[in-house]
Amino acid sequence: MKNTFRREYPLLLAFASVLFYSGGAWADGVAEDPAAANDSGFTVLGNATNVTHWGLGIGAGVAASPYKSGSARFSPIPLISFDNKWVHAFGTTIDLKVARWDDVSFMLRGTYAIGDGYRNSDAPILNGMENRNGTFWYGPALAWETAFGTLSGDYLLGGNRGERAKIDFSKSFDYGHFSFAPHVGLEWLSSKYVNYYYGVRASEAAAGRPEYTGKAAYEMSLGARVGYKFTRQQMAILDFGVAHDTSGVTDSPIVGRKYIPQARLGYIYQFK
């Protein structure tokens, strides 16, 4: 997918985790220097010219709450993009570029999940529960660009929030000023993660809310991104889809949905 559109405009290639990373993985392709993209090997040993691209924008996301009788959740998303030979950053995600071999890239990723968790006032079923907060996730990430699309994945750690591993596939199609990219993803959530966000501690058990210890689960997602470029520097992106969790999550007494519809809208201006 090395085309003029991708080199000249910031694409939000990974809506990765719907509010899955809550802004953290919304992007994976702020304009890269073509010479750097073709420089194979470890970044520190490469001879690619260090060209910097950056931009600013604003975005917002909305998703149905997975908790019983919970209201839809709105999340503002800071769209600050930065890309050079060493670093790629977008929103709340930053990648340290370690190496690239032909069409395979290896990065060290850090991302803050600003939309994870809840306040005990978010839904009646959560009254009396302790608040659950988002956290910083970090770990290795890979991306493989092929003629059929881009396959990407990462394995992230979050301290006492556990672990998560994601694999995502997307394919972009360009039609004049428009681009369209269907995407599908599968994410593994460790038992510690599920227990933190969907478990019920003994001290939180109440009538209609028995104690529950979370089990490892999978989250499947399906959606599409639609982009529109107003000018060489300006672009708007709409990303929408649905996520589905397996029984480790949905068996929780505080969970009321198996399918979570979600959408995000963003605008970005590329300065360089």
**CA radius of gyration:** 19 Å
Which structural category do the helix and sheet elements fall into? mainly beta
Helix fraction by DSSP (H/I, runs of at least 4): under 10%
Distance between the termini: 21 Å
Q: Please trace the helix and strand order, writing H or E for each element.
A: HHEEEEEEEEEEEHEEHE
The amount of beta strand, in percent, is: over 45%
Oligomeric status of the shown chains? single chain
**Judging by the overall fold, what is the CATH architecture?**
Beta Barrel
Folded structure, characterized:
Strands 2-3-4-5-6-7-8-9-11-12-13-14 form a 12-stranded antiparallel β-barrel. It has helices at residues 4-8, 34-37, 191-198, 247-250; strands spanning 41-42, 53-63, 73-83, 87-90, 93-101, 104-112, 136-146, 149-157, 163-170, 173-175, 178-189, 217-229, 234-245, 259-270. It has a single domain, classed as Outer membrane phospholipase (ompla), Chain C (Beta Barrel). Helix content is 8%, strand content 46%. It is built from 4 helices and 14 strands. The longest helix has 8 residues, at 191-198. The relative contact order is 0.19. It has 272 residues and is mainly beta.
Task: Briefly characterize the structure.
The chain has 272 residues and is mostly beta strands. It has four helices and 14 strands.
What is the fold's blueprint, element by element?
Layout: H1 4-8, H2 34-37, E1 41-42, E2 53-63, E3 73-83, E4 87-90, E5 93-101, E6 104-112, E7 136-146, E8 149-157, E9 163-170, E10 173-175, E11 178-189, H3 191-198, E12 217-229, E13 234-245, H4 247-250, E14 259-270
Antiparallel strand pairs: 1-5, 2-3, 2-14, 3-4, 4-5, 5-6, 6-7, 7-8, 8-9, 9-11, 10-11, 11-12, 12-13, 13-14
